[in-house]
């Protein structure tokens, strides 16, 4: 019997790339669209895109890396606190374990049995509280670093796509048209894969991602026109 | 006995505002810094900031809203699948429940008792699998919508801060200096509160948030100079 559990799972690397690239597509695309409505030279649009890509990739990459480190520190602090609590307030911590089993739907008898078994081994007890009371699992430090780097790099590549249209055309108006066409295609493709990777409906996901990009770009375009 | 469990908790509203505002500070600040190194007029810096703030707030707000809706759809799909699995493969699903209790550290006897109790009530059984096998809790649709709106609006306010320095000065160089001073102060303040809200060390968090903004801004500044 082939019991095929197809709940979401995918390679971290691929999903980092898709996340970074699809975010990188959206904001620089919309930024360039907005500026293109106000300036006469492609040089200024490209300058702004470069600044945005650098800013966005560092904010996303470095921000993600530091958040990962903070998460690890946080895990360690909470772990220490939980160990201390099993010493300082064993009865209260036991009651908390019991409550978790109660919420799961176990009977009084099973709750008591399970609690007594768990608290015999402090490591198991603390691991249980970390996971089921605090919803914390030990973060992987290397994964956070790699993930931040991959997302940051993918953001750069994603951001280069809408920008290139302005590099290879001579007026912001033409640049905007080509940028729009190329980016919409890319947003659809990345939205499709992003949804597939996270177990969503791919066509719907592709349309949603395109909609975010197009709405952001059109809003930036018209708002900048309004302010100028 | 005052057993003070100070694990992280805070108002959703406040934390949305702090997240949106601190992200809004970082990217428009760095973007403006980058552009200020290449242009002679504050008008262009402000135009680019407006485009970025619109783009970023829509990408973050609308993106967050649609992601919230997708999460809800995903939850419903998985819920339906789990119900179906308890009908199609009850033995396998029971074994999965047992394995979860095994990993928790319960004895064989308690595992069996707990499994038998759970599977008597299909709703409890499915709720258990959703939470402990798939790590999914029912998302709150209204919360996602409100959260997306708050983050988007806070991004606009955050982004306006580094921009205003260019509105009220007459050259990009002066604008950059004022923008830098004001934004660094705001990054420190928001980093401090953001860390407090999420249970991190506030001083360290303030310095990290400032570092991300300053590194992004300096990188954008010098890279744009290089390309021009």
* Biggest sheet record of chain A: none
Mean pLDDT of chain A: 88
Helix content of chain A: over 70%
List low-confidence stretches of chain A.
Answer: 1-9
Strand content of chain A: under 5%
Shape call of chain A: elongated
Number of strands of chain A: 0
User: Which two protein chains have the largest interface (Cβ within 8 Å of the partner's Cβ), and how many residues from each?
Assistant: A-B, 75 and 73 residues
Structural class of chain A: mainly alpha
Number of helices of chain A: 8
Report how far the terminal alpha carbons of chain A are from each other.
Answer: 67 Å
Q: From the structure provided, what is the oligomeric state, counting identical versus distinct chains?
A: homodimer
Q: What is the gyration radius of chain A calculated from CA atoms?
A: 25 Å
Helix and strand pattern of chain A: HHHHHHHH
């Amino acid at each position: 019997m082939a019991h095929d559990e197809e709940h979401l799972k995918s390679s971290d690397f691929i999903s980092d790339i898709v996340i970074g690239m699809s975010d990188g597509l959206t904001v620089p695309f919309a930024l360039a669209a907005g500026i293109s409505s106000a300036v006469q030279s492609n040089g200024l649009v490209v300058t702004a895109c470069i600044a945005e890509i650098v800013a966005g990739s560092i904010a996303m990459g470095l921000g993600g890396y530091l958040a990962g480190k903070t998460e690890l520190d946080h895990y360690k602090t909470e772990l220490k606190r939980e160990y201390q609590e099993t010493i300082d307030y064993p009865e209260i911590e036991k009651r908390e374990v019991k409550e978790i089993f109660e919420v799961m739907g176990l009977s009084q008898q099973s709750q008591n049995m399970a609690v007594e078994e768990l608290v015999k081994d402090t490591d198991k007890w603390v691991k249980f509280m970390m996971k089921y009371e605090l919803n914390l699992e030990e973060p992987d430090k290397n994964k956070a670093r790699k993930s931040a780097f991959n997302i940051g790099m993918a953001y750069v590549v994603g951001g280069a796509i809408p920008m290139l249209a302005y590099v290879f055309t001579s007026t912001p108006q033409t640049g905007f048209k080509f940028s729009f066409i190329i980016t919409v295609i890319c947003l659809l493709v990345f939205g499709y894969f992003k949804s597939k990777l996270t177990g969503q409906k791919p066509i719907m996901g592709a349309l949603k991602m395109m909609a975010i990009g197009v709405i952001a770009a059109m809003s930036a375009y018209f708002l900048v026109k309004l302010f100028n």
